[in-house]
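Data availability (excerpt). The following record was deposited with the supplementary files.
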Amino acid sequence: MWKPKRYVSKPYINHFKAMGTIISQEVYGINASGIVSIVTNKIKKLDNLWSPYRKGNVINRLHKAAGIKKTQVDCDTFKILQEAKKVSLLSGGTFDITADPLIRLWRDSARQKTVPSKNDIDLARNLTDINDLVLSDSSDIFLLRKGQGIDLGAIGKGYAADKAREIYVDHGIRHALINLGGNVLALNSKPDGSPWNIGIRIPEKSTTELVGYIEVCNCSIVTSGDYERFFDYKDNNGLNHHYHHIIDPRTGEPAKTGVSSVTVVSYSSTICDILATSAFILGIEQGMALCDSFENTHSLIIDKNGKMFMSDGMSKIFHKN
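Predicted structure:
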């Protein structure tokens, strides 16, 4: 018996730059273009608040006020700091937004193609302590010691994706996909009821080929890897060293666990963002155990040799190329 095809509207597709990456939206529904504009403006607002390169924003003000006085912050900043502190305490010190001194140090080193001294690393590491971030009920924030700061690079895009979902839902959108440079959030299924297919890259700097794809509906997918932001350094003995951007707050140096990339799937993009970084730093066994401790959360870890390790839940939705 012939059945009419289900009507599927064309998506409104938009691309813009924010949070240090290209952000794309694919949104279905009435007034999709208007809702995309609302999401775009919200993400740009968050970027202006949290970018380490914006003078006078809340991140800059927190750094200047550290050890001196409390800082009144907006609702979004207070919420993200609350979430970050809560999960940081569960991560065994691998996720810590007060690692700003370390991240600044290594960011400057990457620009100059040099390696920080052990003394500079130790000084920055000693300023990293999530317990020094004091949150009051009145949205006042206080960092206890001078020189401390906040870096939201491992959580900001996840929070922004979750805010995008809120806006889509509040405006009646039922099907959408947003990609914030590797932080992907899928709202429900595609309009025809099929899942979204999210490709996972081979974690090498010289290729964009995929190891496979993940079938998802109504969840977030975040990948962290050592192949996009890095610098290579040749020491006095002529030996080459590879330094990536994922800093282990416990050692003060780029994580060395034999991991090349981590992909996490869960409902919350904020949680995915945090866990992808923490699992990378913890390594395969402990990283997967951390992800498994969160309900309905799946992980895929690829080591330096290209070997894949995945949780039981991930094995049901991952398809190898």
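Summary of structural features: Confidence is low (pLDDT under 50) at residues 1-7.
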